[in-house]
């Protein structure tokens, strides 16, 4: 049975309803699935699964980010059941977003580089197990946009400056081949989310998200025909890798 649309799917439809003209993404002539936004022949919706996890995610998305077929934030919502998504506003943040940040059910952590921390802002590289033991769910906040947009969202959102930062120094360079940032160490939103899952002790779930991201990238590139024939791998290599990682993640919860 197909899973119900998630928070990013709903946000996409809302943002699309506000548009006065179609979003001009590359490959705009490609016939896309309305949910995963991949070319219909490479649609991954039938493979989508929900992970068993203690994590919750909050995606704060720049205005047009939710419309981009290359957006990887939606991959988090594909696998993590408790995912929330809002469009960022500099002057009028949504009341529901602020309520979520103050909910006693959650302990929010902003996933963002330590170098941008405000004075006195706590910086961590993993979520303390004592916090999980208190019964609160870690709410992992992702600022979803280009690198410049993410910095702007952070700097112009005072409600984020009192939250602890969860920050990483990844050992491997980005593999995000669709829309790399201006620096090699910058990762896609889903890649950073996989690191965040590892930081709360869910490395297997992080691996599942990482392989879901790999499948997304490969499916996107195949839809654009941007690979040389000799560089192509069977798409089943990526679907099999995801299904294996998902099975390993779920078996670890039993």
Automatic annotation (TrEMBL):
Keywords: S-adenosyl-L-methionine, Transferase, tRNA processing. GO terms for molecular function: tRNA-uridine aminocarboxypropyltransferase activity. It is an enzyme of class 2 (transferase). Residues 29-225 form the DTW domain. It holds the Pfam family DTW. InterPro entries: DTW, DTWD2/TAPT. SMART domains: DTW. Its EC number is 2.5.1.25. It comes from the Bacteria. One of its GO terms (biological process) is tRNA processing. The keyword Metal-binding does not apply. This is tRNA-uridine aminocarboxypropyltransferase. It comes from Shewanella septentrionalis.
